[in-house]
Recover the amino acids of this structure.
């Protein structure tokens, strides 16, 4: 295992993903994790992430000293390098000139940069193009260290103590803008830490199946299937492990997309022969949502209804002992929460939390250690359809938060059809893969139009398409006008009740991705 200590950089999860991509298992923990935990984990190498703090202040977050005493290689990135310098006897200062963006570095021969360079300068020096983003910098090296990369603005752009195998990089190897970043990370984990290539999907499936069987024995497992990627992959994996001991409950809340319920049943019940109980509760949800206009109250109502229905079904399944959930690694990291992480929740995201206690079931979470891209890879390896595995995220409350104000069946139907046209055209044009999330929103306001010779007075559909890495910030997608024109035409012509289509050009922040 490679241990990554998180000092709160927005790129920390990227470090973990890059390491996993080199087929090495790694874990990410807050920088202030218990030293005993680190000792017990016995990592073969440690990475200190970047972070927003200043290493030269009194109360700056520090790496647990044990990290430097384990006798294993340590790589400090950005703040991680500064904290390493500060703790090992060097000095950090506020740089006169901050550096953001591309920088060209001259590098020295060392184990970390072995066989790595972007080009050779006229004076025969190997050069590296890197992505910088820092205000502070190392000003004096700790004893034992030497410079392995520099330029005029940053004399200590990278440092190394090769006898102890400690390395510091002022730049970010984990972002794709640093072209040789992957090679540098590869060099650190394989050549310097001596990691093997033992993190791969086929082996992982075998191991996971073994673990699930050992965990549940011959007891029954219940899983709430939503049709989303995580719960679907969890279902496919558990089914592979224990077959009919798994019972899935699929609750149709009436707020799903066009034909979604049918697709879920076809994929799981028919094609994969998974035991799925299909509950059509759309009427019940709509009744409960009547007259409710406040977004948070809608979320709570939908969440509560779901729990109630799910619980009722679960109780009917005799001798079920386990509740399976599609929790993935980013969920685990977020709920572990170091205090460098931003705390406030902007919206109360509904999930099935709260279920386990009331049901007295044990929790089975087979995807707990996987990142989203690994979950997708696993899904494909388990034979799930490409469309399902690569679908955009869909919120738990579904169309409930995409119909502004009160939710009505009539509105949901209009939205479903408009949304289906939008998504179909995105897929046909190749834009579905180029956007992270796209959907239609129903606005319950009427505007005037003209259709044929008569005046129309009908509802508005807004289209939203965003590009984002992490859904915390997002840009609206610059869809081609010709594509928008085609979608607008189709929606207005094919969805009776809509006479106007608008495109949302707000970024997050200040807007959110969903409209409610
Ligand atoms: P926002 O609107 O907060 O959305 O920018 C960020 C991401 O979270 C999804 N989202 C939700 N997911 N329950 C969910 O399961 C919710 O209540 C919820 N609200 C937003 C949203 O679709 C986007 O991917």
């Amino acid at each position: 295992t490679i241990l990554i200590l998180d000092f709160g950089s927005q790129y920390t999860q990227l470090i973990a993903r890059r390491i996993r991509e080199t087929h090495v298992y790694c874990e990410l923990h807050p920088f202030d994790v218990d030293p005993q935990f680190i000792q017990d984990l016995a990592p073969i190498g440690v990475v200190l992430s970047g972070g927003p703090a200043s290493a030269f202040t009194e109360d700056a977050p520090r790496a647990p000293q044990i990290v430097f005493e384990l006798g294993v290689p340590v790589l400090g990135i950005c703040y991680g390098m500064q904290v390493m310098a500060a703790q090992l006897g060097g000095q950090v200062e506020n740089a006169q000139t901050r550096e953001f963006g591309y920088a060209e570095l001259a590098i020295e021969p060392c184990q970390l940069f072995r066989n790595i360079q972007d080009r050779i300068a006229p004076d025969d020096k190997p050069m590296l193009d890197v992505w910088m983003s820092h205000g502070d910098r190392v000003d004096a090296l700790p004893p034992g260290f030497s410079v392995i990369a520099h330029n005029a603005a940053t004399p200590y752009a990278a440092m190394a103590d090769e006898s102890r195998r400690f390395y510091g990089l002022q730049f970010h190897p984990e972002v794709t803008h640093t072209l040789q970043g992957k090679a540098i990370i590869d060099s650190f984990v394989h050549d310097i830490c001596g990691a093997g290539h033992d993190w791969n999907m086929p082996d992982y499936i075998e191991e996971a199946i073994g673990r699930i069987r050992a965990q549940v024995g011959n007891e029954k497992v219940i899983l709430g299937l939503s049709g989303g990627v995580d719960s679907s992959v969890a279902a496919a994996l558990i089914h592979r492990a224990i077959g009919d001991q798994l019972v899935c409950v699929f609750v149709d809340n009436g707020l799903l997309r066009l034909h979604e319920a049918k697709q879920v049943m076809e994929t799981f019940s028919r094609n994969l022969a998974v035991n799925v109980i299909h509950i059509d509760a759309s009427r019940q949800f709509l009744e409960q949502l009547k007259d409710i206009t406040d977004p948070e109250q809608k979320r709570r109502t939908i969440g509560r209804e779901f729990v109630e229905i799910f619980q009722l079904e679960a109780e009917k399944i005799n001798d079920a002992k386990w509740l399976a959930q599609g929790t993935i690694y980013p969920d685990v990291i977020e709920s572990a929460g170091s205090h460098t992480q931003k705390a406030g929740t902007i919206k109360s995201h509904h999930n099935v939390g709260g279920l386990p206690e009331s049901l007295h079931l044990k929790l089975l979470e087979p995807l707990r250690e996987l990142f989203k891209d690994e979950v997708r890879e696993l899904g494909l390896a388990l034979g799930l359809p490409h469309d399902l595995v690569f679908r955009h995220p869909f919120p738990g409350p579904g169309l409930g938060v995409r119909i502004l104000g009160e939710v009505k069946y009539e509105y949901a139907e209009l939205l479903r059809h408009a949304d289906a046209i939008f998504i179909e055209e995105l897929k046909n044009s190749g834009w579905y893969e180029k956007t992270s999330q796209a959907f239609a929103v129903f606005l319950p306001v009427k505007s005037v139009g003209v259709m044929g010779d008569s005046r129309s007075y009908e509802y508005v559909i807004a289209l939203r398409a965003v590009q984002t890495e992490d859904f915390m910030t997002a840009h609206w997608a610059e869809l081609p006008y010709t594509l928008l024109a085609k979608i607008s035409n189709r929606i207005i012509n094919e969805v009776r009740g809509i006479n106007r289509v608008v495109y949302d050009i707000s970024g997050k922040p200040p807007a959110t991705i969903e409209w409610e």
Residues 338-352 have pLDDT under 50 and may be disordered. Residues 299, 346-347, 349-351, 393, 395-397, 437, 471, 508, 512-514 surround xanthosine-5'-monophosphate (CB under 6 Å).
